[in-house]
Amino acid sequence: MTRVKVCGLTNLGDALFAAEAGADALGFIAVPGTPRYVSPEAFREIRAGLPPYAVLVVVARAVEDARRYDADIVQFYEGPASTSRRCVRVFRVKDRSSLDELTGYAEPIVAVHLDTFHEKSLGGVGQSFDWSLAVEAKSQTKLPLVLAGGLTPESVADAVRLVRPYAVDVSSCVERSLGQKDPEKVRAFIAAVGGA
Question: Whole-prediction pTM value?
């Protein structure tokens, strides 16, 4: 079954709801200056209030930027992976040439994360890319594939059926306002993944 990561969480209430609704992983942004940024101190407070068995993912530009976050997994965009932490590398997809970087990637990572390329943002912009490229990417790696980028409660089932990813990742498309999750959208998204 495809797993679900709810990302861009900024407060304990949303994180608790996402976990209770069935999210397999909870994502927190460690990129200062971005709208969903969570400081290391705020992350520790949220973590302290979460139930056991919640998998926490910190999203950083580079692995070294996540050193003050005690998360289970580091999702990163650039620089080397770590041999002492479980890392997921993000590949930003614009077109077929975007997959070139994935071919032969040799850093020690536990999964490949595909997100939509955007000129001014690393992610969380609510735009999708051609999912056939994700299908192609699956043939280029033996690692689990995480699909992100503009997935909504209405579109995610189609994406899951086409790509058959290990996991899907959602952030802005289940918000009621920037950084605030909409419980109904979160519930509908997780239900759609389960139904697919």
Answer: 0.94
